């Protein structure tokens, strides 16, 4: 690939038939200062690469899911190589054991492999390895902003039943220097809060969870005998950002609202503003 001096200068394309996985990867890339595009099929991926080549604006890196329904990742890799030659670095991403396709993928032109769910640290290290960019690029750079916002050292309880959404939120919180405990449903969130006494600074509460939803969990917390029952900040996480959703969160006793998929900047801003109101 052409010489690139920093991660921020990379142009990245993500190809995965799972929309949430695309959003997850794009958010992690954003935390590294990298702009990315994403597509949901192998065909779109090849077309996007071809179009960029014709315009002289080649992608530096392409993350390609191994198992896409229209064209598998190995074949997509082969077609990309026919179009772009060696200029685009190709990373195969998969939830499966890639050893069975490693040789054929490398023969097709793949440069590296990455397991899903993708974590920021593994993505960062893989990008540095395959691009040759020096480690002068500081992985904690996104955390510099959050430290200036005074969030490092917070202890947050994250209540989220969806595995991918939980991984995304967990990764973003950890990058901010925040310690995180997780609950997979509302009842578990209530139990953790009640048994951990003064441990948590804030609760991020998904509103749609099994056993006990976020509104019910918030009500149980607010009505409990815990010394911080009425003062612990609780921020709702919902798939909608309509006015009525925000109002329902406040009516349920919550202190703030974040729409999903979670945006890194919004997450940090809401946490910072919510905690500032507690001082």
UniProtKB/TrEMBL annotation:
Domain Response regulatory: 11-131, 155-275
GO terms of biological process kind: phosphorelay signal transduction system
Location of 4-aspartylphosphate modifications: 65, 206
InterPro entries named among the record's database cross-references: CheY-like_superfamily (IPR011006), Sig_transdc_resp-reg_receiver (IPR001789)
Keywords, ordered alphabetically: Phosphoprotein
Entry-linked PANTHER family: HISTIDINE KINASE, HYBRID SIGNAL TRANSDUCTION HISTIDINE KINASE J
Pfam family, one: Response_reg
Sections of the chain in a coiled coil: none
Lineage: Bacteria, Bacillati, Bacillota, Clostridia, Lachnospirales
Protein name (database record): Stage 0 sporulation protein A homolog
Transmembrane segments: none
Biological function: May play the central regulatory role in sporulation. It may be an element of the effector pathway responsible for the activation of sporulation genes in response to nutritional stress. Spo0A may act in concert with spo0H (a sigma factor) to control the expression of some genes that are critical to the sporulation process.
Family matches, as Gene3D superfamilies: 3.40.50.2300
